Amino acid sequence: MSKIKTVYQCQSCGHVSPKWLGKCPDCGAWSSFSEERQAPKSLRSPGAQGASAEALPLSQVSGGREKRRLIGIKELDRVLGGGLVDGAIILIGGDPGIGKSTLILQALAKISETSGTVLYVSGEESPEQIKLRAERLSINSDSIILLPETLVENIIEVSRDMKPTALVIDSIQTIFTGDLSSAPGSVGQIRESAAKLMIYAKKSQVPVFLIGHVTKEGAIAGPRVLEHIVDTVLYFEGDRGHPYRILRTVKNRFGSTNEIGVFEMTDNGLGEIDNPSELFLSERPVDVSGSAVIASMEGTRPLLVEVQALVSPTTFGMPRRTSMGVDFNRVNLLIAVLEKKAGLQLGGMDVFTNIVGGLKVVEPASDLGIIAAIVSSFRETPVGQKTCLFGEVGLSGEVRAVAQGETRLKEAAKIGFKQVIVPKNTADRLKTDFGLTITGVKNVEEAIEHIRR
Ligand code: TYD
Ligand code: MG
What is the reported pLDDT for 7? Predict the structure, then answer.
């Protein structure tokens, strides 16, 4: 009989060591090692498709598009790349309490309406608790089967007999495989359980959703191992203080990444938001300094968002710089550009910036908008109510062209904006102006001239 080997595994990245270590040499995490029993060789997962593989020339591989099915929740279908693919394994991650179980239950209700039985495995909540949530969402169906089970082998067996249209595991951290002796939630367990589910999904062509909790550091526990295994990774984000929730594609083998779906958490579930730009601008104050609108893009989707800045004299020695929803370092860089290239005396000023609605804007095209908000607050002059901006700002104060200029302009025109300040290069290349007054600017100084009205 072979000896059972004990190894130590980093719980944050999966690094394996024969000895306990204080610091993980791979990801640098401290005290992240825990003891696990190594799985015997025969339990290692076979090839990605679960069947014995055969070598083939590419030209002989039978083609054909993956089979897709629309779920019926537009925002969810969008982030999945146009519907649910058969046999896909999808990870939905997010903070506890953000609404993952709500979203998945609503999706299951839709799927079961059109395509038949679905299986909802919950290791966290009892069927009674799920029933309570379903009542709140006005969902009642014979085709949603609840299974309170945590052993992955049993889950797969039940699913094999039932042949559901979709299988949901809520959450992956609660289930375990009998092959390993470590506790549920450890990296080894998560990886082995997910691998087994993956093999099952590919073999049976049943789409599988895995729900995963995000740790305090913002990573799904055992994330690296899981992100490799699954086909699609979606993050459900949002600010607890705001009703808006954003479902973001982080990885997708069946579609583009960086897509977003926008939802609103209401008293009876998640509502879809068809036109997020209108919503995010609906409470914009009129003629107040320190507010500007950015025409940004989220994947293929234009999104107009309001950025606010507050510039006020520092009361303590060190000026304070705070930013929410935009990158802190990026804002500092833009402040430095404003000081050096546009001569704004911001050295003795606190600068606070915020994206309204708890949103996050990461693309460089937001630079011009952030600058406009800061300048507007500094000079106490509002940016025109019907003006929006986009453009990347370089370190020498130049304004650079960004991608998808026309899509942004079209959205601005649709929402009712009249003037758009854009990089000169973008303005020169436009074929149509969408009925807008388009101002092309070469550098920050020019941009500031125009936002002064
Ligand atoms: P839940 O889906 O349980 O979150 P997760 O599975 O991500 O942990 O939802 C959590 C929150 O959503 C909870 O605090 C209550 C709120 N909620 C509503 O506001 N309206 C609703 O209709 C439902 C079902 C939940
Ligand atoms: Mg939940």
Answer: 86
Residues of the chain with pLDDT under 70: 1-4, 38-53, 64-65, 215-225, 452-453
Give the Å distance between the CA of 23 and the centre of ligand 1: 36
- Containing H/E element for 120? strand 118-122
Residue type, 382: P
pLDDT digit string, tens, across residues 181-215: 888 888 888 888 999 999 999 999 999 999 988 76
At residue 452, the pLDDT reads 63
Integer CA distances (angstroms), 287 to 4, 279, 376, 381, 416, in order:
72, 19, 11, 8, 16
Please say whether the beta carbons of 34 and 19 come within 8 A. Answer: no
190 in contact with ligand 1, CB cutoff 6 A: no
DSSP three-state, residue 33: strand
Say what the pLDDT of residue 40 is.
57
Q: Is the CB of 94 under 6 A from ligand 1?
A: yes
The pLDDT of residue 183 is 81
DSSP state, residue 98:
S
pLDDT reported for residue 48: 47
* pLDDT of the residue at 41: 53
Instruction: For residues 369 and 374, give the distance between their C-alpha atoms in angstroms, rounded to a whole number.
Output: 9
Measured by CA distance, the residue closest to atom 13 of ligand 1 is 97
What number does the ligand 1 atom closest to the CA of 236 have?
Answer: 7
Integer Cα distance of 59 and 30 in angstroms: 49
Q: Residue 101: is the preceding peptide bond cis (ω within 30°)? A: no
| Nearby residues of 399 by Cβ (< 8 Å), 6 or more positions away | 368, 391, 392, 393, 423, 424, 441, 442, 443, 444, 446, 447
Contact status, residue 120 vs residue 130, Cβ threshold 8 Å: yes
Q: How far apart are CA 76 and CA 223, in angstroms?
A: 22
Q: Whose CA is nearest to atom 1 of ligand 1?
A: 99
Say whether pTM exceeds 0.85: no
User: What is the residue with the minimal CA distance to atom 18 of ligand 1?
Assistant: 267
Which ligand is nearest to the Cα of residue 171, counting in written order?
A: 2
Residue that the structure tokens 């990801």 belong to: 27
Residue pointed to by tokens 């994206």:
355
